[in-house]
């Protein structure tokens, strides 16, 4: 039976964090004082989790972190994931859509090997197209050139569609909206702006820091008119194309325009916990079940029980909002 929650939402997308280590210290994410808190599992454990979940109806797997390209063996892991097949009733099965989110710093050398291993597409996190501003945000010198080289290498390798994610913070980088529109057109990538969410380590988020979807559209409209592109209900981003057909942007607006009603995702953290929502206040220890020596069928039963506890929605900005039990770098994007 397909994996569904108690609200009737089909769960088809899995995000696996393969490390909570990161070589960047982005100001909207990390204090810069804490490193990895939870550790990594052997790839064979993540592979077993993925295999069970694909057998339950997962069709898309995205590898995240931390920074996933810090893990030695990630190319071989992608190759092993690419061998998984979703059940389709005809005995052969369909391949899984495998994607990866990275800060891009190490991507230039790995883009082609990852493509050869079976990676379909990649998303690069990049919060400024100005090198000095980029350094201020990441607190890593000379990172901009590495990331730009990684984006271009991914494009040459055919990792497509190639998306560049920018988290906007008021008073910090909202002046990058139009430069990113120009970047999308010049580099042939899809730029996606993400509203700032309360998932940072120093817990300084407030509604005033959020640059909303409506503001982004208004600012980009000062550069060129946008035309909305139809999108699937489960897509997180609202998509737009420039009026002349050159360049695409997306806006992920969980704060001002929540999309919880069509959420199709669950996450596995680097230490093997299932999270049913970014803003969950608890984890469900899948790896502990594996350590107990349970069968794949028992793992599947455990997963079904967890999915039935998936939250209906988040409560960002509401009086009863409780911050997530982990911050983003320790959940996986």
Task: Note down, in words, how this protein is organized.
The chain is of the alpha/beta class and 333 residues long. It has a single domain, classed as Aldolase class I (TIM Barrel). The protein has nine helices and 14 strands. It has helices at 43-54, 74-81, 107-117, 131-138, 143-157, 177-187, 213-221, 286-291, 296-307; strands spanning 13-17, 60-64, 85-86, 94-95, 97-102, 121-125, 162-168, 190-195, 226-229, 237-242, 248-252, 265-268, 273-275, 284-285. The protein has a twelve-stranded mixed sheet. A two-stranded antiparallel sheet has the order 3-4. It is globular, with a radius of gyration of 19 Å. The mean pLDDT is 93.
Write the SSE topology:
Layout: E1 13-17, H1 43-54, E2 60-64, H2 74-81, E3 85-86, E4 94-95, E5 97-102, H3 107-117, E6 121-125, H4 131-138, H5 143-157, E7 162-168, H6 177-187, E8 190-195, H7 213-221, E9 226-229, E10 237-242, E11 248-252, E12 265-268, E13 273-275, E14 284-285, H8 286-291, H9 296-307
Parallel strand pairs: 1-2, 1-12, 2-5, 5-6, 6-7, 7-8, 8-11
Antiparallel strand pairs: 3-4, 9-10, 10-11, 12-13, 13-14
Helix pairs in contact: 1-2, 1-9, 2-3, 3-5
Which key terms come to mind for this protein?
single chain, twelve-stranded mixed beta sheet, 333 residues, alpha/beta
Examine the coordinates and then state which fold CATH places here, giving the name of the CATH topology. TIM Barrel
Give me the number of helical elements.
9
**Poorly predicted segments:** none
CATH superfamily, by name, is: Aldolase class I
Distance between the first and last residues' Cα = 28 Å
């Amino acid at each position: 039976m397909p994996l569904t929650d108690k609200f009737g939402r089909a769960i088809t997308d899995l995000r696996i964090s393969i490390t909570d280590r990161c070589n960047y210290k982005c100001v909207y994410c990390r204090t810069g004082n804490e490193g990895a808190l939870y550790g990594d599992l052997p790839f064979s454990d993540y592979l077993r989790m993925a295999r069970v979940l694909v057998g339950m109806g997962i069709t898309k797997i995205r590898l995240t972190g931390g920074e996933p390209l810090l893990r030695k063996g990630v190319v071989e892991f992608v190759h092993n994931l690419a061998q998984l097949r979703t059940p389709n009733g005809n005995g052969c099965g369909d391949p899984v859509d495998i994607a990866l989110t990275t800060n891009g710093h190490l991507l230039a050398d790995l883009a082609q090997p990852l493509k050869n291993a079976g990676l379909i597409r990649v998303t690069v996190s990049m919060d400024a197209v100005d090198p000095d501003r980029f350094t201020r945000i990441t607190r890593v010198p000379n990172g901009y050139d590495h990331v730009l080289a990684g984006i271009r290498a991914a494009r040459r390798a055919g990792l497509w569609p190639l998306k560049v994610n920018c988290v906007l913070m008021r008073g910090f980088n909202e002046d990058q909206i139009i430069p990113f529109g120009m970047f999308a057109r010049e580099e042939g990538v899809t730029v996606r702006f993400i509203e700032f969410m309360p998932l940072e380590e120093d817990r300084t988020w407030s509604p005033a820091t959020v640059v909303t979807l409506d503001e982004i559209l208004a600012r980009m409209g000062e550069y060129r008119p946008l035309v909305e592109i139809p999108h699937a209900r489960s897509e997180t981003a609202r998509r737009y194309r420039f009026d002349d057909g050159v360049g695409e942007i997306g806006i992920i607006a969980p704060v001002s325009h929540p999309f919880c009603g069509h959420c199709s995702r669950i996450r596995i953290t680097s230490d093997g916990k299932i999270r049913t929502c970014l803003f969950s206040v608890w984890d469900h220890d899948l790896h502990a079940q594996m350590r107990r020596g349970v069968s794949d069928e028992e793992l599947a039963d455990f997963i079904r029980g967890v999915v039935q506890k998936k939250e209906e929605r988040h409560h960002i900005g509401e009086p009863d909002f409780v911050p997530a039990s982990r911050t983003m770098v320790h959940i996986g994007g």
